[in-house]
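User: Show me a protein chain along with its predicted structure.
Assistant: Here is one chain, sequence first, then structure tokens.
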Amino acid sequence: MKNYLFLFLSLIFLSCNRPEISFKDYPPVYKTGDSLSWAKKDFNEKGWATARGDTKNNIFWVRLKIDLTKKPLGLLGLKIEAFGAFDVYWDGKLIGKNGQVSMLNQAEIPGAATSYYSIPDSLAQTGSHVLALRASQAHLGNFQRDISAGLSTYDDLLKMPLKASSFMNLIAGAFLIAAIYYLFLFINGRVKQYTILIFSVICFLFFALLILEYIKFYIEIPYTRFFLRLELIGWLTFALSMLVPLYFTIQFKFKWKKILMSLLFISLVAIYILNFGHYDITAYYYSQAMWIASLIVVFRGIYQKEKGALIVLIALLLRLLINQFLFYDFSLFISFSLIVLCILYLHTIQMKVIEEEYQSSLLLSSKLQLELIKKNIQPHFIKNTLTSLMDWVEESPKEGTAFIQALADEFDIMNSISEQALIPIRQEIELCKKHLSVMQFRKEINYKWEEDNIDESEFIPPALIHTILENGITHSSPLADGSMKFKLSFSAGADYKQYTFETFANNRVKIKPRNGGNGFTYIKARLTESYAENWEFTSHENTQGWMTTIKIYTK
């Protein structure tokens, strides 16, 4: 943030550091035709037109009087902004060419829209001077752009744009790196956070906008391609004006997002249509629409007490102050930079929240591991199991040995899955079967296990079905034939997968309503750990016993 503050102050300094030169220019006059005598300083241009008119492919001349009232210390430089190709004369002396003027047997070679020339010291004395252009404009005949001329030191004319663009290129490079980093972060993220993708696109578009704006100082752009660059800048600004408020609506949970974004899109299209061809005005109105839409969202975010909303509001209001000190190009990009930096700040807040949630998930995972172990070593389970084991060993050593083996197998499976978040469904089923073997010895009830349409490739949080099975055993009594049956079924749809666990038994008489105890708490915690909020859990009594359903959404 300190580096960007330094950049901001530096740009103010550059914008205030005007070269020590003073001049006055007069409106240009035009004449279609061709005569080198029209370049002379003392030529009388009486009768020349104040407007160029339709010159078609013909050669025309432009004369512009300039009074130099204060001579610079260095070499005098001339900057011309005009469409076409032209030869430049200063007080009748040829000082440069821009492109190639069309001739009878030679097509025009388009010149650059902006060109620079040095004026010899012998022609740079204070007083009145005449700038004359021998020109043609064979392309874009419908655009009769005004000719603009300015004086400064030649060094300043060449260096000042590079100084400004060097600062902007630093910003552009930073945002290019940010765009790539956040794109990789989105691609490799376990959970796809679309705010990260939107921010990556914003950074890349802002990088492209800066490059397009200042590429004119590095590459000579013919006037025939002048509007192409402005069109691209306009569409980039349009996209940014949509994406920045969209990001804020997601970040600050703006509930009227669709309405606001629809109105913003309509406004931007209307601005494009009403100001077609006026590129700077269009871009300015785009940024205004973006600013207003962002303010609406941020004010709502402050009302909802969203983190970071106040910081974003301060940045948006700073835009008003920046516009007072810097001209449009700088103010637009500095304002965009502040907004993007605010988005980056919001991301740091979001990353902090994610880190805290991750640490909480680690703590929850540890607690769930302990809970899973406690489920099978709780005192009353161990005591009752050992008591039954003693009776079986005394009465039938062979059956007692089988009892011990079943108990050991259940503990082995429980130990192997205790540290895992997901296990194969077949391993979960084996755990359930081992538990039924142990309970069959303990309670001397004929427990039956059935399964239907099980997908062997599926994974599930550990001891989920095991916990439901325990509840069925605890809260049900056997049927008339002394048996209890449990059935696990699996089904899947386009956007979900579902496990249905049925207990076929007599339900015990309830003294108080059953809303699920520690077992249900464990199940819900495990589902949240693995699937966030993308699940449903229901458990209810029916005429055959009990039915429990776990539905996991995949989209």
